[in-house]
């Protein structure tokens, strides 16, 4: 620290200056939030909130600002706030996104930004929906390793190619953005939905797993993969970039060819 | 806006909506078509009368609409088969949709004279 010309120190102080000047970057946005409180009214309503915010901040930050500074009754889910836990899937400007991964500047802050709960699941309050049917479908596909015979004394080895086979579907964070973007699921909540199929795919195509036949039978049901109409809403909605429709198609083809 | 907003899906969702709508339209056509064709068994004279009304310009326009619905449903049906059976299908669904739309426009242009030619001659003289 005694060096006379420390570039790190200079940089730090200029960055600090910039940080102190952020007030000038603030813009005023309108957040149009779909609010519902069953204890007050049976009808949901749109409520507009105008607030100053840095466009580089996220929709979640705007929701926090509302809850902490404007109206403490606003209810929404969030846990990690960094796109990993999958708690804050909401419908922003008509599309399912994670509030914590959507920057204000990316969604045209000039017009009111609409924030609604995800579709197809019962709204409990404001942006909070009942996730039970979603997790039940997930449990129904048995998302755990199923094996036969004795436990090996060492770890179950797998080649890099075999691991690659289902790599895409391991990324799921169970946020329900895909399932609640699916028109088939909106009309019939009995449909397993994209997320459950993605998590079945993760085990069906795992070379170490031996429960593939069972899972395929479950998904061969009338509410299983055949309900998929390939609208690709799930693939577009997935915040992890999983090719959801492709995974569903692979399960369909595995059912026809019995090769997986 | 009582029930929230419309979901803003992309090409895949709208192609699905168009596939549904054209499917229902084709079903209604087939329904009428079976009825009018069955009429020939009941009364050949009435059948001739009904079919004569089909030569009017209004019905020609409806026929052009029928061509539009069937062409889209058929071409997009091939795309859906490719999405389900071709390994790379889901990855190229958008390109396939625009191919479908392009082919549809070409065929619709090609169908103008064969389908609407007669109506044009009736309306504007030959």
From TrEMBL, chain A:
Chemical reaction(s) catalysed: a quinone + succinate = fumarate + a quinol
Domain called 2Fe-2S ferredoxin-type: residue spans: 38-121
Pathway info: Carbohydrate metabolism; tricarboxylic acid cycle
Regions crossing the membrane: none
Record flagged with keyword Nucleus: no
InterPro entries to which the protein is assigned, alphabetical: 2Fe-2S_ferredoxin-like_sf (IPR036010), 2Fe-2S_ferredoxin-type (IPR001041), 4Fe4S_Fe-S-bd (IPR017896), 4Fe4S_Fe_S_CS (IPR017900), Beta-grasp_dom_sf (IPR012675), Helical_ferredxn (IPR009051), SDH/FRD_Iron-Sulfur (IPR050573), Succ_DH/fum_Rdtase_Fe-S (IPR004489)
Enzyme category, top tier: oxidoreductase
GO biological process, one term: tricarboxylic acid cycle
Domain annotation 4Fe-4S ferredoxin-type: ranges: 162-184
Keywords: 2Fe-2S, 3Fe-4S, 4Fe-4S, Iron, Iron-sulfur, Metal-binding, Oxidoreductase, Tricarboxylic acid cycle
A GO molecular-function annotation: 2 iron, 2 sulfur cluster binding
EC number: 1.3.5.1
Cofactor note: Binds 1 [4Fe-4S] cluster. Binds 1 [3Fe-4S] cluster.
Cofactor(s) for this UniProt protein: [4Fe-4S] cluster; [3Fe-4S] cluster; [2Fe-2S] cluster
Sequence similarity: Belongs to the succinate dehydrogenase/fumarate reductase iron-sulfur protein family.
Name used for this protein in its record: Succinate dehydrogenase iron-sulfur subunit
Gene source species: Actinacidiphila bryophytorum
TrEMBL record, chain B:
Record-level GO BP terms: tricarboxylic acid cycle
UniProt keyword terms in alphabetical order: Heme, Iron, Membrane, Metal-binding, Transmembrane, Transmembrane helix
One annotated GO molecular function: metal ion binding
GO CC, one annotated term: membrane
Compartments reported by the entry: Membrane
Pfam families with a match to the protein in the record: Sdh_cyt
Cofactor: heme
Transmembrane segments: 21-42, 54-75, 96-116
Similarity section: Belongs to the cytochrome b560 family.
Protein name: Succinate dehydrogenase cytochrome b-556 subunit
Organism placement in taxonomy: Bacteria, Bacillati, Actinomycetota, Actinomycetes, Kitasatosporales
């Amino acid at each position: 620290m005694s060096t006379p010309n420390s570039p790190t120190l200079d940089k730090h102080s200029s960055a600090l200056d910039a940080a102190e000047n952020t007030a000038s970057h603030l813009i005023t946005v309108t957040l149009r939030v779909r609010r519902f409180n069953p204890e007050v009214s049976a009808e949901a309503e749109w409520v507009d909130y105008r607030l100053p915010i840095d466009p580089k901040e996220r929709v979640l930050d705007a929701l926090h600002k509302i809850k902490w500074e404007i109206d403490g009754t606003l209810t929404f889910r969030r846990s990690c706030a960094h796109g990993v836990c999958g708690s804050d899937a909401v419908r922003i400007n008509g599309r399912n996104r994670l509030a914590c991964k959507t920057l204000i500047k990316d969604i045209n802050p000039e017009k009111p930004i609409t924030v609604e709960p995800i579709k197809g699941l019962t709204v409990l309050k404001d942006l909070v929906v009942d996730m039970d049917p979603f997790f039940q479908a997930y449990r129904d596909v048995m998302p755990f390793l199923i094996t036969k015979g004795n436990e090996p004394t060492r770890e179950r080895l797998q080649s890099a190619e075999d691991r690659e086979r289902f790599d895409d579907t391991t990324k799921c964070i169970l946020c329900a953005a895909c399932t609640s973007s699916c028109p088939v699921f909106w009309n019939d909540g009995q449909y397993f939905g994209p997320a459950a199929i993605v998590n079945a795919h993760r085990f069906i195509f795992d070379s170490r797993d031996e429960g593939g036949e069972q899972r395929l039978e479950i998904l061969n049901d009338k509410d299983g993969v055949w309900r998929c109409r390939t609208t690709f809403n799930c693939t577009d909605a997935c915040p992890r970039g999983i090719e959801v429709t492709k995974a569903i198609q692979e399960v369909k083809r595995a059912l026809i060819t019995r090769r997986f | 806006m009582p029930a929230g907003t419309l979901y803003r899906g992309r090409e895949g969702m709208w192609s699905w909506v168009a596939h549904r709508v054209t499917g229902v339209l084709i079903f209604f056509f087939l329904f009428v078509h079976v009825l009018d064709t069955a009429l020939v068994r009941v009364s050949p004279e009435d059948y001739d009368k009904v079919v004569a009304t089909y030569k009017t310009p209004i019905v020609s326009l409806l026929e052009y609409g029928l061509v539009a619905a069937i062409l889209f449903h058929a071409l997009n049906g091939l795309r859906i088969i490719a999405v389900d059976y071709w390994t790379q299908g889901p990855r190229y669904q958008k390109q396939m949709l625009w191919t479908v739309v392009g082919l549809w426009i070409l065929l619709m242009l090609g169908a103008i004279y064969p389908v609407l030619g007669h109506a044009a001659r009736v309306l504007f003289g030959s």
